[in-house]
Specification:
With 354 residues, the protein is mostly helical. The chain contains 16 helices and no strands. The protein is globular and about 55 Å long.
Length: 354
């Protein structure tokens, strides 16, 4: 047993160390478009600093910590090991050194962490903030009820102060849970389908109150200014205008499938980095879907695991409403990587606790 643990630890250390090198050199080799957000956060040329919103709070965080004054390579040297330490504390799954699809997904996930967290990043803050939800799930001393209450509060607070669309996650996730209690033949797909319908209903409600639908004021606005630009090769544009109820419905479903099952993204065959992200996303979605089905089937045995997967799929649905392009969608998934990491290996972590 100790030998297996040593192998797993050694594999994790090797992968983390190799990607630390990637994080260190990223700022010297990545194209400028990777640093748009980092430049806004580090230099704050537009004086956005404040207490509400992802940019204002990120700028405040990097100013208070003093990290904004450091070269990006040094920021990577500080940030990346912290995130690897968090994953290490969540647990290292058995057979982590073996090459299989699940492990490869995590290896690539760690590689993407090295890329996206190698600079001032909103995802670094998200990763840190989301991690306590996972720690509550691996801690058997914390009851399911407390885990749910504290997690929902964390998501709501994060939505109020940092990213407003996180406010939708508890609503969609809660609705999906209630739907899952009803007996259906294809319970997993039906639960996700109704989650999408809840997102559509929320967007309709926003349209009635504010005059515009959710994707109309987010993704469509962001992409309208980017069409034809050099960094717009993976943008998500709805096949119909989203200024009508049926257009918004189509747009949300189209966005969900484009972000999470992006087979239409294979048209970017000449862009290897996009193809890699697409394959990673397709395999990740499939494996999480299978694990979601397993938890729904045996919810008494996997209550916390089901809770995490409901959050993940609610997040995936929200991405279908708001994400402007595939690259941004993948980057935002890195922010919730602790949830994904736990969902992929929850059986292994259960054995560790036993």
């Amino acid at each position: 047993m100790r030998r297996i643990i040593r192998k797993n630890n050694a594999a994790f250390l090797i992968i983390a160390s190799a990607n630390l090198v990637v994080a260190l050199v990223s700022s010297f080799i990545l194209p400028p478009k990777f640093f748009y957000d980092a430049a806004i956060i580090a230099y704050d040329k537009y004086n956005l600093i404040g207490y509400f919103g992802s940019y204002p709070l990120s700028i405040l965080f990097y100013k208070v910590t003093g990290l904004r004054h450091l070269p990006f390579s040094l920021i990577a040297l500080l940030q990346f090991p912290i995130l690897m330490y968090i994953l290490r504390k969540i647990g290292i799954p058995e057979n982590f050194e073996k090459i299989n699809i699940k492990n490869i997904l995590v290896y690539l996930g760690i590689f993407m962490i090295a890329i996206f967290i190698s600079m001032p990043s909103k995802e670094f803050i998200t990763f840190l903030y989301i991690s306590p939800i996972v720690f509550m799930c691996v801690n058997q001393k914390i009851s399911l009820k407390k885990t749910i209450i504290y997690s929902i509060l964390l998501l709501l607070i994060f939505g109020i102060f940092f990213r407003p669309y996180y406010l939708l996650i508890p609503v969609i996730g809660g609705g999906m849970y209630l739907v899952s209690l009803i007996s259906f033949k294809s319970k997993t797909l039906t639960t996700i389908f109704y989650g999408l319908l809840i997102a559509v209903f929320l967007s309709f409600s926003h349209g009635i109150i504010k005059g515009k639908y959710l994707s109309e004021i987010s993704r469509e606005v962001a992409n309208s200014e980017r069409v034809g630009s050099s960094d717009a090769n993976s943008i998500i544009i709805s096949p119909v205008k989203t200024d009508t109820w049926y257009g918004e419905t189509i747009g949300i479903f189209y966005g969900f499938f484009t972000v999470n099952i992006p087979v239409n993204g294979l048209k970017h065959i000449l862009s290897p980095q996009i193809v890699i992200f697409i394959v990673w996303q397709l395999l990740l979605f499939y494996i999480l879907l299978v694990r979601f089905a397993k938890c729904l089937l045996d919810r008494k045995r996997y209550p916390k695991e089901l809770f995490i997967l409901l959050i993940i799929f609610a997040f995936f649905i929200v991405q279908g409403v708001f994400e402007p392009d595939l690259g941004t969608a993948v980057r935002h998934k890195i922010g919730v990587f602790p949830l994904i990491y736990f969902a992929l290996y929850y059986e292994s972590f259960r054995k560790e606790l036993q």
